[in-house]
Specification:
The structure is a single chain. The chain is an alpha/beta fold. The chain has one domain (about 5-195): Rossmann fold, CATH 3.40.50.300. Helix content is about 35%, strand content about 10%. A 5-stranded parallel β-sheet has the order 2-3-1-4-7, sandwiched between helices. The chain has a two-stranded antiparallel ribbon with strand order 5-6. Helix 4 packs across helix 6.
Length: about 220
């Protein structure tokens, strides 16, 4: 089944675009950690989509992909705030977050590295450094553009542009008001907009299916 994958990094507008898609009739998973969540949702965003897009492209041929761009001057302080809140629970072994969430964030941001002498995982001293995060952002963007080079199934938008929702809906061939605007959520220190938003089309990230809560075998 064709899907729509939002593959921008966290704090580029993944929650806002997810909420907008709910109101256009799509079933949406903002994070998805089971096969069933992927089967149920039409639109999927955030982890693990931002790092697993090549595997998802293979699993769901004919899907469309949306990369969310954001000015580094705005994105860096926002992602710094998020990572400083989350990093303890993103520790690959001891962290309490979902393993797929931990893997996704560590692949994208290299939060934990092996100590040269003890070989134990330790917090990367550069984890919250502006230059380090800028490099992570640019690397992710270049990898996305290289992967989708010469293809017409990737759209890049910056949600601060007034025409971005119109551009997205035209890409998806959805009838709409051309003046429609994205909702603004997760502003500043507020990072729980998706959990608070009530909508019948929301898909639980841990939805169980015939394989219970099993994930795909590609990782």
């Amino acid at each position: 089944m064709n899907k729509i994958f939002i593959i921008g990094l966290p704090r580029t507008g993944t929650t806002s675009i997810s909420i907008a898609m709910l109101d256009y009739g799509f079933k949406v998973a903002h994070t998805a950690y089971t096969k069933q969540a992927f089967e149920l949702a039409d639109v999927l965003s955030d982890s693990p989509c931002f790092c697993d897009y090549p595997e998802l492209d293979t699993l769901f041929p004919g899907s469309k992909f949306v990369y969310l761009d954001r000015a580094l001057a705005d994105w860096i302080p926002s992602i710094q705030m998020l990572l400083k809140k989350m990093y303890i629970n993103l520790e690959p072994k001891a962290g309490i977050f979902n393993p797929i969430l931990k893997r996704s964030f560590n692949e994208a941001f290299h939060l934990y590295i092996k100590n040269n002498s003890s070989k134990q995982l330790i917090l990367n001293e550069q984890a919250f450094n502006e230059e380090h995060l800028a490099t992570c952002y640019r690397t992710h963007k270049s990898q996305v553009l290289e992967y989708f080079a010469h293809r017409d199934d990737l759209l890049m938008i910056n949600m601060s542009d007034k025409e971005s929702l119109d551009t997205l809906l035209r890409f998806l061939d959805i009838p709409h008001d051309k003046d429609a605007q994205f909702p603004h959520v997760n502003i500043g220190k507020h990072v729980s907009g998706w959990r608070e938003y009530k909508h019948p089309n929301k898909v639980n990230a841990l939805s169980p299916g015939k394989d219970q809560r099993k994930f795909f075998d590609y990782k």
